[in-house]
């Protein structure tokens, strides 16, 4: 916050009784506090002209009148007047941080996800934007003393040299944000250079220079096949109608969905509008970015590694209309494009589109709402749409466009299920059974390449005691410790707790403790030992820490230097390597054991996605799925590539057990350090909810399920219990919660969260 921009006015000059009250002006203000309401403040005359909705203000709050900052969401004559009304003290921002459209959208989020409007606003405006909101000036950098430069150049670090190069080659003096973006570094090299007087800076009015995204060689659009043309036409029809409609683009893996997005976006740009493309964070890889940068001049990429300064810079460029395509993860749905023309959500079934901290929004639902407000199309693309999205099509609410064939007319690969229950090697603890071993050898001897998928990282997921049968859990969580051999450590994947591997059982003291089960590191060791003549490479979040490591690894695979690529989710999605003739799924069942109504749906999705990585050229390809549950319907349907068969069966089951998409859910979690307190609190909460439900007369529809211990009862030293509210419509849940909330807010020391439309059931 820059104090110089704040107009302070501590009291109104004229006594209340003497002033003319008919001309009063007020502001409606919301705060980042867990309260379900807004507050009205009087606006002093001196601030009346400047204050607009979307700016932040500083006001006295509560009994002690402590000063806090809130968002002004409306101004106007006061709805009611009283002498006790407080005054706005200062305006924090020079200009509104959010548009009227964004105010409407954030308000909807607060109402739908049952959290305060102020909390939503606070969360969606990036920190860098809030911090710099008072500056219309920017600092730009140019080269310093040339004698010094010549003398000192030998002593520079690589990063410092890169910074100098950027400044030297820029057409206009660049801002720090532009330098950091181009070099890919933090601010320290710039500061050091400036201190050594090798560069200098000055303040200028924020530049209006063209948006410079790093350029990639431009590629021309492909000639679309008939399915793709039909899909683009459907999107363009909605675009031209200037009405909102959601299009579910159900296209099998390799059907060319990205090309459809690209050509629809071209249309959007020709209208002078902008497009937002949301992809799962894990798919926001250099290849994905290149695919868009090689087609469009001005692409902004919003990923989670941006610094505050970088994010702020992008935000400004987008708001100024200098960006035509925004590509980003979940939060890019809030990108301040001035004339939005289209939002695309690729891989709409991915759970990472749901935020798991307050506000717990789902980007798909926010996008739907935003597209409706702005009357533009929303495109949801997936080979395996969620049951929620499929059901909306069945209900006639959304439009379905199908692309059932792969682009080049190749068939989807055959999927073979391998029952590992009697496999002697697996019985001895190996990851690769006999059938998969044969298939790997054959694929590579025929000059193909292999992808092996396993969604457990680390070496072994469990330390197990032979004597008493106990496994070793994290001291803070109900999670077994994973053995990371490379770090010689036992680690908790929930809280990062790390310790030396236990040498004896913490339960019985026996020394026979050993690690069991296979993670990606152990799979890597097995592959290296078994196929020493071939190169293998592991991709998971442990091995892909460094910047650029992802690109480097995939390049080695693409060039053929590496024959076997193995890894987690990271390799399950989006990769397009024509030479991959075999995909092996090491353990298809890992997800089926989770206490989650979506376990089957996720298993189906995963097998379908992984299978999509092969059979992408004339060389063909096949998939081997190792499973101990070969009769499981989700696995059977996935092996037949039968999305509709699976979905039809799964929907009828969901209807029978009365769960989403047929009912709406909200999950309430109470947590605390003392288990009996948590139990008492959530029991009381359930009683209050049941009571209100009865009084409101909605207890024939609304069901309160629980309370019960959450599946992950202990997390980061806290005990967790949950209950679920289930109802026919989201409105019933909202009404109940709004009525009951004041009772919970009055109760002291109770820590609860509510998750509307929850995806994570742990
Ligand atoms: P999906 O996202 O549906 O899995 P992609 O968009 O990745 O499919 O497309 C698969 C491959 O087909 C990519 O290599 C893409 O460049 C190529 N492709 C897409 N459309 C066409 C087309 N019309 N003609 C030729 N190749 C295409
Ligand atoms: Zn832990």
Please give a handful of descriptors for the protein shown.
single chain, 762 residues, alpha/beta, GIY-YIG endonuclease, Arc Repressor Mutant, subunit A, 5 domains, seven-stranded parallel sheet, six-stranded parallel sheet, disordered N terminus, binds adenosine-5'-diphosphate
Describe the structure.
The strands form 7 sheets. A 7-stranded parallel beta sheet has the order 10-11-9-12-13-8-14, sandwiched between helices. Strands 15-25-24-16-23-22 form a 6-stranded parallel beta sheet, sandwiched between helices. It is α/β, with parallel strands linked by helices. It has 23 helices and 29 strands. The longest helix has 22 residues, at 675-696. Bound molecules: adenosine-5'-diphosphate and zinc ion (ZN). Adenosine-5'-diphosphate binds next to helix 10.
Largest sheet: 7 strands, parallel
**List of distinct ligands in this structure:** adenosine-5'-diphosphate, zinc ion
Number of domains: 5
State the end-to-end CA separation. Answer: 39 Å
Please state the structural category: alpha/beta
């Amino acid at each position: 916050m820059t104090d110089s921009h704040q107009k302070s006015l501590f009291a109104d000059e004229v006594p209340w009784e003497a002033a003319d009250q008919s001309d009063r002006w007020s502001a409606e203000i919301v705060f980042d506090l867990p309260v379900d309401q807004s507050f009205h403040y009087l606006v002093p005359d001196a601030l009346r002209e400047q204050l607009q909705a979307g700016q932040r203000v500083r006001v006295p709050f509560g009994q002690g009148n402590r000063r806090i900052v809130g968002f002004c969401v409306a101004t106007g004559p006061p709805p009611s007047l009283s002498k006790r009304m407080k005054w706005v003290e200062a305006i924090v921002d020079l200009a509104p941080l959010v548009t009227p459209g964004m105010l409407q959208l954030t308000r909807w989020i607060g109402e739908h996800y049952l959290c305060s409007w102020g909390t939503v606003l606070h969360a969606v405006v990036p920190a860098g934007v809030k911090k710099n909101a008072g500056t219309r000036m920017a600092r730009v950098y140019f080269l310093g003393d040339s004698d010094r430069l010549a003398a000192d150049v030998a002593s520079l670090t690589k990063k410092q040299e890169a910074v100098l190069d950027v400044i030297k080659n820029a057409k206009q003096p660049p801002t720090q944000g532009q330098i950091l973006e181009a070099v890919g570094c933090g601010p320290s090299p710039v500061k050091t250079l400036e201190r050594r007087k090798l560069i200098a800076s000055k303040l200028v009015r924020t530049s209006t220079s063209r948006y410079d995204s790093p350029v990639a060689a431009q590629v021309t659009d492909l000639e679309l096949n008939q399915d793709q043309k039909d899909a683009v036409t459907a999107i363009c029809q909605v675009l031209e109608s200037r009405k909102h409609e959601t299009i579910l683009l159900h296209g099998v893996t390799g059907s060319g969905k990205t090309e459809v997005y690209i050509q629809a976006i071209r249309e959007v740009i020709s209208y002078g509008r902008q497009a937002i493309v949301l992809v799962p964070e894990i798919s926001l890889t250099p290849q994905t970015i290149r695919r868009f940068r090689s087609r469009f001049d001005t692409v902004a990429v919003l990923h989670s590694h941006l610094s505050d300064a970088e994010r702020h810079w992008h935000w400004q460029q987008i708001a100024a209309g200098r960006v035509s395509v925004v590509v980003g993860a979940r939060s890019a749905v809030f990108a301040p494009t001035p004339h939005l023309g289209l939002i695309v959500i690729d891989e709409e079934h991915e759970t990472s589109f749901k935020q798991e901290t307050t506000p717990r929004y789902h980007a798909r639902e926010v996008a739907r709402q935003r597209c409706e407000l702005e009357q533009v199309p929303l495109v949801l693309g997936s080979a395996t749409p969620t049951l929620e999205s499929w059901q909306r099509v069945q209900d006639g609410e959304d439009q379905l466009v199908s692309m059932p064939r792969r682009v080049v007319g190749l068939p989807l690969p055959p999927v073979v299920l391998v029952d590992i229950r009697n496999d002697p090697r697996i019985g001895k603890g190996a990851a690769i059974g006999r059938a998969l071993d044969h298939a790997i050898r054959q694929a590579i001897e025929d000059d193909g390449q292999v992808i092996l998928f396993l969604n457990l990282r680390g070496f072994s997921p469990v330390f197990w005691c032979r004597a008493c049968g106990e496994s070793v859990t994290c001291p803070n969580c109900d999670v077994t410790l994973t053995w990371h051999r490379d770090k010689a450590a036992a680690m908790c994947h929930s809280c990062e707790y790390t310790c030396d591997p236990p040498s004896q059982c913490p339960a019985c003291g026996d020394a026979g403790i050993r690690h069991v089960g296979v993670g990606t590191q152990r799979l890597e060791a097995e592959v290296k030992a078994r196929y020493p003549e071939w190169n293998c490479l592991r991709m998971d979040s442990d091995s892909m820490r460094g910047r650029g490591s992802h690109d480097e690894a995939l390049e080695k695979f693409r060039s053929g230097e590496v024959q076997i690529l193995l890894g987690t989710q990271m390799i399950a999605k989006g990769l397009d390597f024509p030479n991959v003739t075999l995909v092996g799924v090491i353990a298809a069942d890992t997800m089926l054991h989770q206490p989650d109504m979506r376990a089957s749906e996720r298993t189906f999705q995963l097998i379908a996605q992984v299978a999509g990585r092969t059979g992408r050229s004339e060389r063909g390809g096949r998939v081997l799925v190792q499973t101990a549950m070969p009769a499981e319907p989700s696995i059977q349907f996935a092996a037949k590539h039968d999305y509709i068969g699976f979905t039809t069966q799964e929907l009828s089951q969901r209807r029978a057990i009365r769960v989403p998409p047929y009912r709406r859910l909200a999950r309430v979690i109470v947590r605390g350090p003392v288990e009996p307190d948590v139990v008492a609190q959530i029991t009381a909460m359930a009683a209050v909810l049941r009571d209100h439900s009865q009084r409101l007369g909605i207890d024939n529809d609304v069901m309160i399920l629980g309370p019960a211990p959450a599946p992950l009862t202990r997390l980061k030293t806290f005990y967790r219990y949950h209950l679920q509210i289930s109802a026919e419509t989201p409105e019933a849940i909202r009404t109940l919660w709004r009525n009951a909330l004041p009772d919970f807010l009055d109760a002291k020391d109770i820590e609860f969260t509510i998750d509307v439309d929850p995806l994570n059931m742990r």
